[in-house]
Write a structure and sequence with these properties.
Length: about 400
């Protein structure tokens, strides 16, 4: 098999990269190790309206609308953030990812399911077309070889493509755990967020989805928790948290456990190779959302890969344009998000109680509602830092005086 571009992994990043490679004239193949796209689900499925736009998908009745959020402090005080309009949707990732795969196929990409990349080399290839990427695969268990001018590693958090190419993988990885169950939402269009020691270094969430709920959390290694202990924290949240335990039914209909990379490596391009999505740590450090940044970067990766192939230059120098372009688009936002995440991770429960107390103010809630953007949290943070009232209160918090 011989392709211009081979994308490894049919998650959102892989499907969009393939769509853009094919649209821009490259003969493109996606390979996916599983028999079914989007499974197993390791996602709460909460996507901002701009994430859905970026994925080029039109919301339908299967999408559950979200218009606001309740943020609960550890002392149960809560703030209500709502602008009255749809800010996000909750989706079924199995259906969502399949739609993205079908869109890639419509744009001309081929797809091979039950095909796992097991190794990758660089060499002349069987067709004598200069230095090429040789992908060793197992197709339904049978060994085979696929040649490509460019490989796009969209193979998720455990990316073997990145490691085989000698690229660094993300060094900060949150541990996430989530259950599907039944929950007594006060408003089925509101998500509920629980920062504090119930989820050290990150937060817990309750997300409605057509009468059911996704209750989950992520924890940050180095915040007094061991890697992988998210599940233990989640069981405790459901059993003991003063708000969640009262609203959550005891039965569980599904469990999802997975890592969330929140740091991007220095390099995301090599000779004849790019990495995108979770493989490249393109995830919002403030929310753990990877679909939006992955989509932004995948579209750039697909186009650059196709352009490079058509120009006959797939060297790292040429492909590094992808690295420059994606960092120019979202690099600053991810860096600011990381700083916000690190600051939040250091706050004690009593500091979070005070912070929520500060924000529980009509003027500040109005500001958060107007400028709050799941994908660009730096905007609202800047507004809060420029506001005399919130800045004064933050300073008092930092200096430790009331
Ligand atoms: C508990 C939890 C909740 C989350 N909630 C949200 C949320 O609400 N909103 C949001 O935006 N993000 C959320 N995320 C993050 C989001 O799920 C990921 O950022 C997103 O799925 C990354 O997309 P991707 O295409 O990069 O990788 P993936 O979706 O992981 O896709 C990678 C694909 O590559 C395939 N693959 C891997 N290795 C190989 C191989 N060797 N050969 C062939 N195929 C291979 C895999 O089978 C998989 O299909 C959550 C994550 C977790 C863990």
């Amino acid at each position: 098999m011989d392709y211009d571009v081979v994308v490894v992994g049919a998650g959102p990043a892989g499907c969009l990269a393939a769509k853009y490679a094919a649209k821009n004239g490259a003969k493109t193949l996606i390979i996916e190790e599983h028999a079914s796209i989007g499974s197993p689900v390791q996602c709460a499925g909460l996507l901002s309206t701009s994430a859905i736009r970026e994925c080029e998908v039109v919301p339908d009745s299967g999408f559950h609308p979200i218009t606001g959020a309740f943020v609960y402090a550890p002392d149960r005080r809560r703030i209500r953030i709502s602008g009255g309009e749809i800010k996000a949707y909750v989706v079924d990732r199995r259906i969502f990812d399949r739609t993205l795969a079908e869109n890639a196929i419509r744009s001309g990409a081929d797809i091979l399911m039950r095909t796992r990349a097991v190794g990758i080399d660089i060499g002349r290839g069987a067709h004598g077309r200069g230095r090429r990427r040789i992908i060793h695969v197992a197709i339904e268990g049978e060994p085979d070889v696929i040649e490509a001018d460019v490989v796009i590693g969209a193979d998720g958090i455990q990316s073997r493509i990145a490691r085989w190419a000698g690229l660094d993988t993300p060094d900060t990885i949150l541990s996430g755990a989530q259950v599907s169950t039944v929950y007594d939402f006060e408003d089925p269009e509101f998500v509920e967020i629980f920062p504090g020691s119930c989820a050290p270094g990150f937060f817990a969430w309750a997300i409605p989805y057509h009468g059911s709920a996704r209750i989950g959390l992520a924890v940050r290694p180095g915040s007094g928790v061991e890697h992988g202990s998210a599940w233990a924290h989640l069981k405790r949240l459901i059993a003991e948290h003063p708000v969640v335990s009262e609203k959550c039914a005891p039965g569980i209909a599904g469990i999802a456990i997975g890592g969330i990379p929140i740091s991007a490596p220095q390099q995301t391009a090599a000779d004849g190779l790019l990495i995108v999505g979770d493989a490249a740590g393109q995830v919002k450090p403030t929310s753990g959302g990877g679909v939006y940044p992955g989509a932004v970067c995948a579209k750039i990766a697909g186009k650059i890969a196709a352009d490079a192939v058509l120009e006959g230059d797939t060297s790292v120098r040429r492909l590094s344009e992808y690295d420059k372009l994606w960092r120019a688009r979202i690099g600053r936002e991810l860096a600011i998000g990381r700083r916000i995440n690190e600051w939040m991770a250091r706050l004690s429960d009593s500091e979070i109680n005070r912070l929520v107390g500060v924000l529980d103010d009509d003027e500040l809630l109005d500001l958060i509602t107007r400028y709050g953007d799941m994908d660009h949290p730096s905007v609202v943070v800047r507004k809060l830092l420029m506001n005399r009232k919130s800045m004064g209160a933050f300073l008092k918090m930092v200096l430790g005086s009331d």
